Amino acid sequence: MIIMKNVYKKYPNGVVAVNGIDVTISQGEFVYVVGASGAGKSTFIKLMYREEKPTKGTIIVNGLDITKMRSSKIPLLRRNIGVVFQDFKLLPKLTVYENIAFALEVIEESPRVIRKKVLEVLDLVNLKHKARMFPTELSGGEQQRVSIARSIVNSPSVVIADEPTGNLDPETSWGIMQIFEEINTRGTTVIMATHNKEIVNTIKHRVIEIDGGMIVRDEQRGGYNNEN
Amino acid sequence: MKIRTIGRHAKESWKSIFRNGWMTFASISSVTVTLLMVGVFYVILMNLNQAAKSIEEDVKIKVLIDSAADKAMQEQLEAKIKSIPEVDTVTFSSKDHELQQLIKSFGEDGKIFQLYEQENPLYDAFIVTTKVPEDTIKVAEQIEKMDNVYRVNYGKGNVEKLFKIINISRSVGLVLILGLLFTAVFLISNTIKITIVSRRREIEIMRLVGATNGFIRWPFFLEGLWLGMMGAILPIALIITVYKYAYDFLEPKLRGHFIQILDFHPFAYQVGGLLLFLGCLIGIWGSMMSVRKFLNI
After folding, report:
1. Contact: B297, A107; criterion CB under 8 Å
2. B198-247 confidence digits (pLDDT tens)
3. I need a surface site. Which of A181, B188, B195, B272 has the fewest CB within 10 A?
4. Which residues form a coiled coil (chain A) (predicted)?
């Protein structure tokens, strides 16, 4: 569960990216975060995994107040939150398998567990047959599937995706959405910032619309725009 | 930390060293050049120090006793000198002894002074040494004011100059060594910074998936350590070899003189150890300085 109470974020250059947000996201929810570019979506998302620290307010993730969290505890928070980006953020010199295993190696999992978990998620994203290939040998959609596999390999309770279909063609985007749906049905909270109108309007979930750093709409099974 | 993890860090650090070939070369070279200079300065400084120490220890005050003073007055004077807290020893040297010394110091030519044996123009003297060489001037000035003292000789002016030169060369050497070390730290930190920039994405992903700062830092820590160690090899080998030759050449020539070159063993090995330690230190320090920036959360 994620709770934000009266959260503000002002950057050192004076820009107020989040301007008094109150929101609660329950465990197992699927939430779209929509809004124009520069509306504050990315900052809103970054606040959840402490990539940004709020100027004011409280953020509670799985019962822990992450605004008061000591820096040394942040890695532990991140192990429970998977993050997916528009640009995939894969390491080009590592194979598909190694890219996913990397997430478990750095938290010092045993090789046996790493192997088991990596093969499991590769199966989920349907890329077992490409495990030995390098990211540059894959299509954009496949790279994003690797990135998703890496975000969930540690079985986090929340997956946060910042425009995961932003670089992909519509058909590939549907494939990516299927994977997110699958992850969500297993009980993982999915929070996705997106500009993809079609997806939001077709696969209905809760929609949070942000404008000027504030939540202007929070609708269960809403559409991309107010009128949908 | 698990042994497997240590192995991983070591592997990663070596991978980075080979992957950033030229940068590695630049880092090692900067450590090598710095340590070589530090080593040379250190060897010179330590030997200078040794020479200064022997000169310092040789500084004595000669108190010439007024010829009018009788035995009782001399004893009184001796007691007075001994009462100065900075004084270490007071030895009496009769004027005959002084003359013999003079004759001896001139070797063959000293024979002409034998004429004076009939009527010795020299003075009885006290040879005074101080506990700390730097107190020589102060003590000499005190004795000068006492009764029955004809004159006090301590190489006035020369002693002051000598102490000044010794102190200046010590300070200059130390400042130079420290300056060189700092330069090396900045050079190595800049070089490693460039290798880190190329691994920025890796660090970013490591942080995202929950690697601790310690975990991220380790490979860079080791990389700095290896770079520092490798940079130290050449200076250590060179300094030990050159010192060995210098020692073999100079030691027989200086034998019997009060100035001595420091013994090859253990001095050369101590310098080697020191350079290795400094190499590791600047390597680690440099890499930690540059990695810190990327770990700010």
Report:
1. no
2. 778 888 888 888 888 888 888 888 988 998 999 999 999 999 999 999 88
3. A181
4. none
Is there a contact between A108 and B215 if contact means CB atoms under 8 Å apart? yes
Q: Which of B201, B215, B297 sits opposite A106 (nearest CB)?
A: B215
* Residue pLDDT, tens place only, B46-72: 887 777 777 777 778 888 888 888 888
User: Which of B205, B213, B215, B297 should one mutate to test binding to chain A, selecting the residue with the greatest count of A CBs within 10 A?
Assistant: B205
Distance from CA of B24 to the nearest CA of A (A): 20
Please tell me the CATH code under which domain A29-41+71-217 is placed.
Answer: 3.40.50.300
Give the domain ranges of chain A: 29-41+71-217
Residue in A83, A105, A108 closest to B208 by CB? A83
Distance between CA atoms of residues A218 and A220, nearest Å: 7
Give B181→chain A minimum CA distance, Å: 32
Please, are residues B23 and B198 in contact by the beta-carbon 8 Å criterion? no
- Above 60 in pLDDT, residue B297? no
Distance of CA A10 to the CA centre of its chain: 22
What's the mean per-residue pLDDT of chain B?
Answer: 83
Average pLDDT over residues B162-172: 80
Low-confidence ranges of chain A (pLDDT < 50): none
User: Hey, are the CB atoms on B205 and A107 less than 8 Å from each other?
Assistant: no
> Could you give the 3-state DSSP secondary structure of residue A180?
helix
| Cα B102 to Cα B111: distance, rounded to the nearest angstrom | 10
Q: Of B1, B201, B206, which has the smallest distance from its Cβ to A106's Cβ?
A: B206
Q: Please, which pLDDT band fits residue B257 given cuts at 50, 70 and 90?
A: low
Report pLDDT for B259: 67
| pLDDT one-digit tens code per residue, B133-156 | 778 888 888 888 888 888 888 766
